[in-house]
Each structure stands twice: as C-alpha cells, then as structure tokens.
Design brief:
Helix content is 10%, strand content 38%. By secondary structure, it is mostly beta strands.
C-alpha cells in the first residue's frame, strides 16, 4: 500500500494545475510521509491536513483505505461525504524480490501531476487504494486511486452521494503510469576470497 508520495513542483504550478486562487502554507513538498502535513483539496477548497487518521485500535495512523470496504468500515462510513483529492507528482512502492525490497517511483507517464482520491476528518486524511493498473501489478497488489481531471470535481462535490461517485474508484487506465526502480549499487569491492580454494 502507498506509504510515501512526492510533491516535486512549486506553489505556482500547484495552484495553476489545480485551479487554486490562494494556496495555504505549511504543507510538505518533496517526499511526503505519514503524519506529514500535506495539501489536500476538498469541496471547501484547499487545506493542509496531516496524513493518517487516528484510530483507537492502532498506535500507528491509518494512512490508506481500501475501496472495496469503504462503505462497510465504521472508521470510514462517517467520512464518505468528506471527500478530497491529494495532489502528487509520484508515489513510491516497494517490490519484494528474493527477500530484497526494491523501491519504485510510480508517476504519470506524461509527467503531469496526479490527484489521489481521499477522505478527511477536518484534521487528517487517508488515501483510498484499489487493485493496481496492469502495468504496475508486478510491483504491488494495491495502488492509490488516481482520479483523472474529468472526475476530480465530481469526487469532491459534497452535493453528490458517495454511491453516486463510488464508480470513479478504479485503477488507472492502462498505459497512463510509468515506474523507475532503484537498482542497488554493486558492492564497492570484489569478494576477496573468490577464486581461492
């Protein structure tokens, strides 16, 4: 599940791409981690909220919410009308390979900004996840819901019911995402004992 994302554009670009007249201050840029303050946009406009809901049953903040169970879980049901989008330039996921964890940066193939679907409680927010797009399914079995431009206003519209907007919670269209995997560097020195025996 998504546990880190990135905002690597300046305020002017954010404001222009998300049609914001005045950006709030104090949100994290660069890599955003759980509990960091981040820019989110809701029906009332842009806000700075911390990433991760506080819950009674876990010491760690709840940072992701599964699309399939949003309407069933008591944690999320009260928030279904508190919908928001979370601007991001990329997110990071770790692929497991023979015991190693390899970091992948996943971003729009056209390098545009994306908007995750989220829910908020007025102080904190959670990113909604779904099954992965086909091209990144080998990396992880979940991905953030990335809303296309045409669906962002609809998702945030407080006058629409959750049932009305729920169909937008689906994987990104094939071919819209690209990824780069960090390849571990080779050892600094050769094995001193190779060839001996």
């Amino acid at each position: 599940m998504c546990s880190r994302f990135e905002v690597n554009v300046g305020p002017a670009d954010l404001a222009r791409q998300f049609d914001i007249d005045e950006l709030p201050i104090g949100f994290t840029t660069g890599q955003v981690r759980p509990t960091d303050p981040a820019l989110v946009i809701a029906a009332d406009g842009p806000m700075v909220l911390k990433w991760g809901l506080n819950v009674d049953w876990d010491n760690k903040p709840l940072i992701n919410a599964r699309t399939e169970t949003l309407a069933e879980k008591p944690t999320f049901r009260p928030l279904l009308q508190n919908r928001c989008i979370v601007p991001a330039s990329a997110y990071f996921e770790w692929r497991r390979d023979s015991g190693s964890r390899l970091k992948n940066r996943i971003a729009p193939a056209d390098e545009s900004l994306m908007a995750f679907a989220g829910l908020h409680d007025g102080e904190r927010f959670v990113v909604i996840t779904c099954t992965p797009a086909s091209e990144i399914a080998h990396i992880h079995n979940r991905m953030p819901v990335v809303l296309p431009n045409s669906r962002r206003t609809m998702w945030c519209d407080a006058n629409r019911s959750y049932a009305d907007v729920a169909p937008v919670l689906k994987p990104s269209a094939s071919g819209t995402l690209a990824w780069i995997e960090d390849v571990p560097p080779p050892p600094d020195q050769p094995d001193l004992f190779s060839g001996l025996g």
